[in-house]
Amino acid sequence: MSNVIKFRLSTPGKVILFGEHGVVHNRTAIATSINKRTYLKFTETENDYIEFNLPQINLVQKFKVCEMESLLDKGFPIMEGKIFCLSGPSEILHDQFIKNICEYMEHLNINPLTVQQTSAIKSILYLLIGLLSTVNMKLKGFTIELSSQISIGAGMGSSASFAVSLAAAIIHYIRCYFKLNYSGSVNISKGVAMPYMLELDEHSLDFSKEFMEMINNWAFGVEKIMHGSPSGLDNTVCTFGYLIEMNRKDKVGDEKFHIVYSTPELRVLMVDTGVSRVTVNLVNKVATLKSNHPQIIEYVLNAMGETAQKASNTLQKFNRQSNFKDQLQTFKVLEELVDINQGLLKTLGVSHSLLDTICELSSRFGLHSKLTGAGGGGYAFTLVPPNFDDWKVLLYCDALLKEAGLKTIDVTLGTHGVRLES
User: Fold this and answer.
1) Residue 219 and residue 214: Cα distance in Å, rounded?
2) Which of 70, 77, 259, 267 is the 20 to 30 A CA-CA neighbour of 379?
3) If we measure between CA atoms, which residue out of 120, 117, 123 comes closest to residue 94?
4) Catalysed reaction(s) (predicted)?
5) Cα 146 from Cα 41, distance rounded (Å)
């Protein structure tokens, strides 16, 4: 085959560093990408079907090209008086579209075995129909294979990394298709969709800011399928990488998310408590506490927001410093902020006995830890100072395993976002 479209891309996971729970109540939170990634391989084929291979959830799903063309002709429901634009799905009636997708799955006799498989297929159809039904291109067979270094349900952004990878792949496929068949500037939209001009003479097919924003918008739609009412923080971190500040106040003239590119690649240990938790229950627990003691909890939440903001400033200061001694002093400030934030989270009642054990053990080794995410179990992270010996890290990990039965994952923070690998 000549001119076969094929490429690889990867997307990072994420970890929330500061401000969990506070962000629900309009305070600042910061999250960062990690060097554990989801990898995607796209290959155009001469087959009469489109295939998705997701071994992490034991799913291989095929759609006949003719069946998919029929679904693309059906399109999706749009808000009254709105015109669809390829740059994002905000004009789509999301709930009605998902209902339609469920009907398509029933018609195609798709019977997934698990909730994860069902969500994955809904997400795949959401992106295929949403992105391809209004693009003026001839559909061909292709395969998408995904593999991931991110454990599912670990609070490290596995679903967001999947969503961003899949959205990026289909968007890049569209770009490659028009690059092969056209030149100059071309309107790739069809039907009643708003014209979308694609510049095809660019030297690089890496993701520009415009395409990163498009990927992020569509990935957020997938996150809504997975989680109902997500904040958008996870998919934003996985798309852009580095450090993301979020404030849900979203004042007029202010951006909800602020990307901080000048962040250091710090080492942390992710510690798994092995305790499952239901995020919504913990969020409701804090809301009830706030309702019962509004003035007191407002002070706690304000302190969490200030802690998150100072942590962001401290990380940026650390990155600017060239003197190692100065960096160590700045790192100590970051460690203090970790302890403060953990104490505030414990005050809100979202810690857990094993999370407390992790903090106590890390303190014994001169390290500092806090929970990440909803709390109540899940993961904690332990900051590793730049001058901390590897043999001491091994001793700490050994103590966690022997004394509490806890396993660790060694990760680096502040890595790049979604990118093409080849």
Assistant:
1) 9
2) 259
3) 123
4) (R)-mevalonate + ATP = (R)-5-phosphomevalonate + ADP + H(+)
5) 7
Res 248: pLDDT = 65
Measure the CA–CA gap between 272 and 358, rounded to whole angstroms. Answer: 10
Q: What is the DSSP letter of 190?
A: -
Provide the phi-psi class of 67: left if phi over 0, else alpha when psi is between -120 and 50, else beta.
alpha
| DSSP string for residues in 257-287 | EEEE------EEEEEE------HHHHHHHHH
Contact 232, 89 (CB under 8 A): no
Q: Which two tokens stand for residue 342?
A: 């953990």
- The label of the residue with tokens 């000048």 reads 262
* Domains delineated in the chain: 6-255+417-421 (3.30.230.10), 262-413 (3.30.70.890)
Name the CA radius of gyration of the chain, rounded: 23
CA distance 267 to 396: 14
Beta bridge partners of 246: 29, 257
What would the pLDDT profile of 218-270 be if each residue is shown by its tens digit? 999 999 998 887 888 999 999 999 999 998 665 544 558 898 887 888 999 99
Strand 243-246 relative to strand 6-18, pairing: unpaired
Per-residue pLDDT, 205:
53
> Could you give the CA distance from residue 188 to residue 174 in angstroms, rounded to a whole number?
9
According to the 3-state scheme, what is the secondary structure of 282-350?
HHHHHHHHHHHCHHHHHHHHHHHHHHHHHHHHHHHHHHHCCCHHHHHHHHHHHHHHHHHHHHHHHHCCC
Q: How far apart are CA 28 and CA 364, in angstroms?
A: 30
